[in-house]
Amino acid sequence: DFEGPSSGILGKGNMFDTILRSPLEGLRTIVSKKKKRHEFEGASLDLAYITPQVIAMGFPSQGVEAAYRNSIHAVYRFFETKHPDQYFIFNLCSERTYDASKFHGRVATYPFDDHNPPPFELMRPMVRHACHWIDSAPGNVVAIHCKAGKGRTGVMAVAYLLHSGICKTAEQAIKKFALMRTHDGKGVTIPSQLRYCRYFAENLHMERHLYCLFLTKVKIHKCPPGMNMLVLNVVGGQTRMESSAPVPSEHVTDVDVDMQAPIVGDVRFALRDLRKGTGKKAEFAAFWIHTSFVEPSLPLLIHKSELDGSIRKDKKHEKFSEDFAVSLYFDCLKTKVAKRLVCAPDTGISSVNVADHQQGVRGADDEDASSARLSFVLAADESSHGSPGAASCQQSEGASRGLDQTGGEVPMEEVFVRCPSNLTTKTES
Fold first, then answer.
1. Of 88, 144, 179, 269, which has the fewest CB atoms closer than 10 Å, so is most exposed?
2. Cβ contacts of residue 210 below 8 Å, gap of 6+?
3. Per-domain residue ranges for the chain?
4. What is the similarity comment for this entry (predicted)?
5. From the candidates 93, 146, 197, 343, which is the catalytic residue?
6. Which residue has the higher pLDDT, 151 or 385?
7. What pLDDT, in 10s, does the model give residues 263-296?
8. Is 146 labeled as catalytic in the residue annotation?
């Protein structure tokens, strides 16, 4: 396997030898855990080549944090020495950024939250942006990072491996990233992130409509006794709903939580235990789905192994049964979201132009569907480096105009937009 043009890889030897050689480098090695590192000009960088053109790395840090993570100055020296004028960096962090001018403005931000999958419509634009840079000149490389350079970075690296044809299946791409990024073969591990990798593979070079589903019930299988009250949160787009159900204290049982909610696009489900006498809701499991990949005629079963959150620590099934699971039940009909839908170009979720009689969510009239409307405008960002496919998404509360499928203007009141309200993507200049 390709290891990249480095002078050596750290992490395979005795950790205490590393600490004795350099306290700071030893600290960085401990923080990076099982991730591969590269030694460059006396610095140990949390960085690995996934392919000769794609680098995964930790956040380029400054100040105190640079003592135990990648120093932004060392990262800059690495790229200026190894890939002068031929590198482009993708920052996936929603929680932090840095001055792009430190890398000559060659930084694009495609942000989403730690331990979560990206908005699905963010994936293809970012990958196309990366491919455009790589293909624009021989020797060009891209570097992808989040905070640790493993989970969020892995999802986007997997998407690139699929989109570019380097890997043919999601499993091949997930495995390749894990082998190239880590010593223990554990790259992308969060179940919802893995689910979105498989969504991307399923939709590769295809388009599908955005559908609204009507959620009718959630069944929690094999709830353990002693939980008191089970609380379910559902968040997606304009849907924010909470429902609860008591859990019998004497035996393991199935619990039904009634829900009457339209859901669309990326949706997060979270399970919380309302602890008796404290009022505290401790989240123990969560998962993300995208409604365009769900067949509503059958319940969607999410097994324990497919759940995010602290439940993943229960590997010996001491608190939750191995058969613990969540089933989602839907109205049998899928409904197209809108009369007109504006999406970023080539996201994999197509714009739709449905008949006049299909209105809003589940047939609601315009007034009832108004809560599903967001005034977003998305467009290809022909940014400072002329990279098409770098999506730009702006929330515009007062916006009065949108774009129809041909690029013509239509009144914003006729536009229903599916993007999550916290999605912003931009290329720094």
1. 179
2. 264, 265, 291, 292, 336, 337, 341, 343, 349, 350, 352, 418
3. 28-205, 212-331
4. Belongs to the PTEN phosphatase protein family.
5. 146
6. 151
7. 999 999 999 998 765 667 889 999 999 999 999 9
8. yes
Using the structure block, give the residue that is written with the tokens 């179940």. 191
pTM: 0.76
Nearest to 398 by CA among 416, 374, 369: 374
Other residues' Cβ atoms within 10 Å of the Cβ of residue 44: 25
* Nearest of 143, 153, 172, 187 to residue 34 by alpha carbon: 187
Q: Are 79 and 131 in contact (CB under 8 A)?
A: no
CATH architecture type of domain 212-331? Sandwich (2.60)
CA distances from 319 to 56, 230, 369 (A): 36, 15, 42
DSSP per-residue letters across 60-73: -B-GGGGGTS-BHH
The domain made up of 28-205 has a fold known as Protein-Tyrosine Phosphatase; Chain A (3.90.190)
Please give the structure tokens belonging to residue 39. Answer: 């030694």
Three-state secondary-structure class, residue 130? helix
Kind of pairing between the strands at 208-209 and 349-350: parallel
- Please tell me the distance from the alpha carbon of residue 320 to that of residue 284, in angstroms, as a whole number: 11
Query: Which sign does the torsion angle of CA 33, 83, 124, 3 carry?
Result: negative
User: Which token pair is 417?
Assistant: 């937009």
